[in-house]
């Protein structure tokens, strides 16, 4: 394989047996196409563009996938992981439910709607998917510590994955995080470090640490392992297609934080078409943001190609990335597929969480309120085809963002334990 | 089918097509064997003993089960549900992970250990299994409202299941419940009623309501639908056996609240043997309680057949039933199989939650701390065979009982975002 010299943004000197990365053949720059050997690197030394995994898939058959395990490893032949990954100690995320949402569809006026509910993952968010791929890369590179900067879901996913694998972990969070997220991040016994600063400062600190000997042999899942990590989101695309009966949906609503998940779902759909696993057909991808952190939505509406960073202010904290790395790619994909990027305000987020819970018994975190809220808005405005097969993502669990709905989810009455009291409280 | 007159403890006059209950043929008294037609009844009119579902299974084959859906409906031919249940709107619980717990096994000194992790259910506790069966019974009996008394897990499971099915729900809780449990119980939009009283008073009020016209056409999952509801726990036995490769474990540790779950797992194992789905072999069943609510454990240790009610005082609130209905059956089973009933104190519960999280990346609720704590105690005392295949249950999710571990799960340090500060905090 042709390749340039090893990118400079890593201190690790690793020799890698590519067999351990399954069908992955190298890393390629998404901007200039420069090729690199597989390694713990994330930016192109030529143009500073982001790197992504390149593959040589060979033949991949539906039957082989269908006979695989009920987790993301059924797609191991499409991921940068060793063939024996399913037997290794990891959290086995994925194969979450694609909920046929007939009652929500009826309320919204849609013919066919499914909710891809990733709250069913081991630590109850889609982050288990991406961390599982990063974990394999960390093992392959001989790293002993799994690390990340996080405001919540990722911290728990990294802590749990490292614990199961027997690796050390060191997770960095802003010091003012909600107590519930702190508890979950720390309970797995790894090192949890609170940084006296905001999330951006935590991020910058992590980048410093990667360049220092202190961070040697550390895999930062969302920094130096990011090309591998990001591939985990492709499994959402694979699962949705397989669960629909090896068919792509007509339209799909996906949350946008960094934008990585949306771009990888598009990549996954295109791979399935290319490999002949699904019939080629047009699909439309819609990105969803919270109004209080909607730089990509603003750029989409303004017809711009660049994304202006914003200072986040929204209850949808897991989507609160003011400077989304993959924002321009999201704009490309929404425009290319005939989709859009839209946003809803915090009140609409809460209404959507309650709507989804009331109609389908799915209790989503605020990010799920954002996608369902945007779905509702798009239908109301006639921008989604009500007769087309639609999928909306819920990427996390309501138990992690209880405060968002607490004031709306209270007892209807407090009564004495007597029939008279019950009758008095609820007589029509 | 021979049967006595309809039991008196229901106001409902229902005519039931037994086809809708699959292989179930009637209800039988666990004490005197009296037979009843299938109906929303729960106590024998002859001797006041509890009723359970009786079946005529016919032939059941492994292949048919294995080709079923990845939820409890793969076992529909062993449950009182219609053949088409999988296509109905319900939460599709079950088929949760049987986690190969090699790191925990190594710490405890066991050769082979699995954790059956029921936090993976839709509302993150095993209650989704039992409620799913009760929901089908409620539909069959033409009930319009799903109800229960609950201190937490059951309230969420009933609210969610009713929402998905499009039934009304009315859930009764003690008014002093933790805010997080209240939020989850109310978010699905059903009616949540707080009772100014303790759990026993809530229960008594529900029994009154069943006899009143106010409760007509209401299915109280854990009262008038209890015989159906309880059958849901058999699916834990089926899944464990199938996931072990159609083999029974040698020893299993199960939490004891009412005791129903333990008795139904034993029933499930015996059914599998009788149907030839697994090889007959001895298995030992161990019950686990929290010291602050250990009436069954106390009776076991004292060699008694009766269970003296206690006033619960433990952090394991989901197991805090001071007067467990199935206590005597639990004693029978533990003694018959060569097992035991044991308890651990609240500190041991917390230690066990942290041990499981640290070794396997599984964050259990307090009930899981009870089972893992009892497992550890039994191994230390030489009462479990360390070379035998062992399974331990985690029946709920740590996110619901965060307070139990919050003081032990905190950041190791709070530092400024600089390498010097990191070095100063963590230099060895």
Automatic annotation (TrEMBL), chains A, B:
Molecular functions (GO terms): L-serine ammonia-lyase activity; threonine deaminase activity; threonine synthase activity
Enzyme class: lyase
Enzyme Commission designation: 4.2.3.1
Tryptophan synthase beta chain-like PALP domain ranges (all copies): 92-396
Cofactor names: pyridoxal 5'-phosphate
CDD domains, alphabetized: Thr-synth_1 (cd01563)
GO biological process: isoleucine biosynthetic process; L-serine catabolic process; L-threonine catabolic process; threonine biosynthetic process
Modified residue annotations for N6-(pyridoxal phosphate)lysine: 127
Record NCBIfam families: thrC
PANTHER family for this protein: L-THREONINE DEHYDRATASE CATABOLIC TDCB (PTHR48078:SF6), THREONINE DEHYDRATASE, MITOCHONDRIAL-RELATED (PTHR48078)
Entry's family note: Belongs to the threonine synthase family.
Official protein name in the record: Threonine synthase
Organism annotation: Microbispora bryophytorum
Organism lineage: Bacteria, Bacillati, Actinomycetota, Actinomycetes, Streptosporangiales
């Amino acid at each position: 394989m042709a390749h340039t010299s090893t990118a400079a943004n890593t201190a690790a000197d690793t020799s890698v047996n590519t067999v351990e990365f399954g069908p992955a053949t190298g890393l390629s720059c998404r901007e200039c196409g420069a090729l690199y050997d597989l390694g713990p690197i994330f930016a192109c030394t030529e143009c500073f563009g982001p790197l992504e995994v390149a593959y040589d898939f060979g033949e991949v058959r539906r039957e082989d996938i269908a006979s695989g395990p009920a987790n993301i490893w059924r797609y191991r032949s499409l991921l940068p992981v060793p063939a024996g990954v399913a037997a290794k100690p990891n959290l086995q995320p994925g194969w979450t439910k694609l909920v046929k949402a007939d009652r929500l569809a009826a309320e919204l006026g849609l013919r066919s709607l499914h909710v891809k509910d990733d709250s069913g993952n081991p630590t109850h968010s889609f982050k288990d998917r991406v961390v599982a791929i990063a974990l394999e890369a960390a093992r392959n590179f001989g790293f002993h510590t799994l690390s990340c900067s996080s405001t919540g879901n990722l911290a728990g996913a990294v802590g749990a994955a490292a614990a199961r694998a027997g690796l050390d972990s060191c997770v960095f969070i802003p010091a003012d995080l909600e107590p519930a997220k702190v508890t979950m991040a720390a309970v797995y016994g790894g090192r949890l470090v609170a940084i006296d600063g905001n999330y951006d400062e935590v991020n910058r600190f992590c980048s410093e640490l990667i360049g220092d000997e202190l961070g040697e042999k550390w895999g930062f899942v969302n920094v130096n392992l990011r090309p591998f990590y990001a591939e985990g989101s492709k499994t959402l695309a694979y699962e949705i297609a397989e669960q629909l009966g090896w068919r792509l949906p007509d339209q799909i609503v996906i949350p946008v934080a960094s934008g990585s998940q949306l771009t990888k779902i598009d990549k996954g759909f295109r791979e399935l078409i290319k490999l002949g696993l699904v019939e080629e057909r047009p699909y439309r991808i819609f990105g969803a943001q919270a109004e209080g952190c909607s730089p990509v939505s603003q750029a989409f509406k303004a017809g711009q190609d660049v994304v202006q960073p914003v200072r986040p202010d929204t209850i949808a904290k897991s989507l609160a990335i003011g400077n989304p790395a993959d924002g321009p790619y999201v704009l490309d994909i929404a425009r290319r597929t005939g989709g859009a990027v839209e946003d809803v305000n915090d009140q609409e987020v809460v209404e959507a969480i309650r709507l989804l819970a009331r109609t389908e018994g799915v209790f989503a975190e605020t990010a799920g309120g954002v996608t369902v809220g945007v779905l509702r808005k798009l239908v109301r405005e006639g921008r989604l085809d009500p007769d087309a097969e639609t999928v909306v993502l819920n990427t996390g669990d309501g138990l992690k963002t209880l405060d968002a709905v607490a004031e709306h989810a209270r007892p209807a009455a407090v009564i004495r334990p007597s029939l008279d009291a019950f009758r008095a409280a609820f007589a029509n």
